[in-house]
Design goal:
This protein has helices at 19-35, 49-57, 86-93, 104-118, 132-138, 152-157, 176-189, 203-216, 231-242, 259-263, 278-289; strands spanning 3-13, 39-42, 60-63, 76-78, 98-100, 121-126, 146-149, 165-170, 221-225, 248-251, 267-272, 292-300. The chain is α/β, with parallel strands linked by helices. The strands form three sheets. It has a five-stranded parallel β-sheet with strand order 10-9-11-1-12, with helices on both faces. The protein has three domains: 3-18 and 203-300, 4-hydroxy-3-methylbut-2-enyl diphosphate reductase, catalytic domain (Cobalt-precorrin-4 Transmethylase, domain 1), CATH 3.40.1010; 19-100, Rossmann fold (3-Layer(aba) Sandwich); 104-201, 4-hydroxy-3-methylbut-2-enyl diphosphate reductase, catalytic domain (Cobalt-precorrin-4 Transmethylase, domain 1). It is built from eleven helices and twelve strands. Helices cover 38% and strands 21% of the residues.
C-alpha cells in the first residue's frame, strides 16, 4: 500500500558510466567475440559486481594474478585501473596475448610519472594506499622514486629524501576538494613543486562530484549507487555529506532499501559511481516507486560526450 504523499527525487547528471569504464567493458566483450571464451581478466575490470557477473556469464574469468591462469594460450585483459610494469612483463615471459584496458586518463598519469622520473624528479603520488590504480601508477617506476601522500597530514610531515627536484601526480578518482587541500599544503611546503600541466583527476570524477554538490543541500538523504571498493563512488558519498546532506549513504550489491528512512523524507538525491550501470539506478528508483509516489527531476550540470576507442586489434 502506497503512502499518499509525494517524494521528490533529484537525480544528479552526469552520473554512472564514464568513457573509460565503457571502453573497458567493450574490450572484454570484443575480446570474447574475437578469441572465444574463456578470456581471462586480471582483477575486476571495473569495480562493480553487476558488471563483473554479467561478463562472467558470457565467458570472462576473473583472476588476481597471471600465474592462476592454467591455459596460457588464452588471452588476458588488464583492468581499467592500470597495472604495474611487472604485469605485462610477466605476460610476455608466459608468451601470453594480453589486451590492456587501462583507462587512457590513467595511462596519461603513468606517462607523466615516467617523464618526470626521466627528468630527474622525485615524485609524490596523491592517492589511496592499496587502490589498484595507485599500485599501477607506483609500479611504473623503480622503487623509492615515488612516494604516496594520502592526507594533508602526510603532506605536512613529508620530508624530502634526496636532492632531486620534486613533482606530484594524483589518482584520477579522488575528491576534488580534499585533493585541493593536499596540493595547497604541498605548495606551501615546497613552493618549487612541479604540478601536472592538466590536472589528473578525471573529467568524470569532477563532473559527478559537481553534480552531487549542486543538489545535496536540498536533500534530506542522498544515495550513491556503487560498489564498496569503488573509489569514485565512496568519494561521492563524502562529497554529498560535505555539501550539506549528512544522511548520505552508498547503495551496493548487498544493501537493503532503507524505505522507512526514505518515507520520512520530502526530497532525496540519487547519483551513481562511474562504474555503476544505469539499470541499478532504475532498479533502486522502481523499488521506491512501489512504496511511495514520486516526482522526479533530473539536474544536469554538463553534457558529457567523451568516448575512447578500443584497441585496433579488436576491431
Amino acid at each position: 500500500m502506497k503512502d499518499n504523499k509525494k517524494l521528490k527525487i533529484l537525480l544528479a547528471a552526469p552520473r554512472g558510466f564514464c568513457a573509460g569504464v565503457d571502453r573497458a567493458i567493450e574490450i572484454v566483450k570484443k575480446s570474447i567475440k574475437k578469441y572465444g571464451s574463456p578470456v581471462y581478466v586480471r582483477h575486476e575490470i571495473v569495480h562493480n559486481k553487476h558488471v563483473v557477473d554479467s561478463l562472467k556469464k558470457i565467458g570472462a574469468i576473473f583472476i588476481d594474478e597471471l600465474d592462476e591462469i592454467k591455459d596460457k594460450t588464452r588471452p588476458v585483459i588488464f583492468s581499467a585501473h592500470g597495472v604495474p610494469k611487472s604485469v605485462p612483463k610477466k605476460a610476455i615471459e608466459y608468451k601470453m596475448e594480453y589486451i590492456d584496458a587501462t583507462c587512457p586518463l590513467v595511462s596519461k598519469v603513468h606517462k607523466e610519472a615516467e617523464n618526470l622520473h626521466k627528468n630527474n624528479y622525485h615524485i609524490l603520488l596523491i592517492g589511496h594506499r592499496n587502490h589498484p590504480e595507485v599500485i599501477g601508477t607506483m609500479g611504473q617506476l623503480p622503487e623509492n622514486s615515488i612516494d604516496l601522500i594520502e592526507t594533508v597530514g602526510d603532506a605536512k610531515n613529508y620530508i624530502k629524501k634526496n636532492e632531486k627536484k620534486i613533482a606530484y601526480v594524483t589518482q584520477t578518482t579522488l575528491s576534488v576538494d580534499d585533493t585541493r587541500k593536499i596540493i595547497q599544503t604541498l605548495k606551501v611546503k615546497f613552493p618549487e613543486i612541479r604540478e601536472p600541466i592538466k590536472e589528473d583527476i578525471c573529467y568524470a570524477t569532477t563532473n559527478r562530484q559537481a553534480a552531487v554538490k549542486k543538489i545535496a543541500k536540498q536533500c534530506e538523504m542522498f544515495f550513491i549507487i556503487g560498489s564498496r571498493n569503488s573509489s569514485n563512488s565512496l568519494r561521492l558519498v563524502e562529497v554529498a555529506r560535505q555539501s550539506g546532506c549528512d544522511k548520505s549513504e552508498l547503495i551496493h550489491s548487498e544493501s537493503t532499501l532503507p524505505i522507512d528512512k526514505i518515507m520520512k523524507c520530502k526530497t532525496i538525491g540519487i547519483s551513481s559511481g562511474a562504474s555503476a550501470p544505469e539499470v541499478l539506478v532504475e532498479n533502486f528508483i522502481n523499488k521506491i516507486k512501489d512504496k511511495i509516489d514520486i516526482e522526479m527531476k533530473e539536474v544536469e550540470i554538463i553534457k558529457e560526450n567523451i568516448t575512447f576507442k578500443t584497441p585496433g586489434k579488436l576491431n
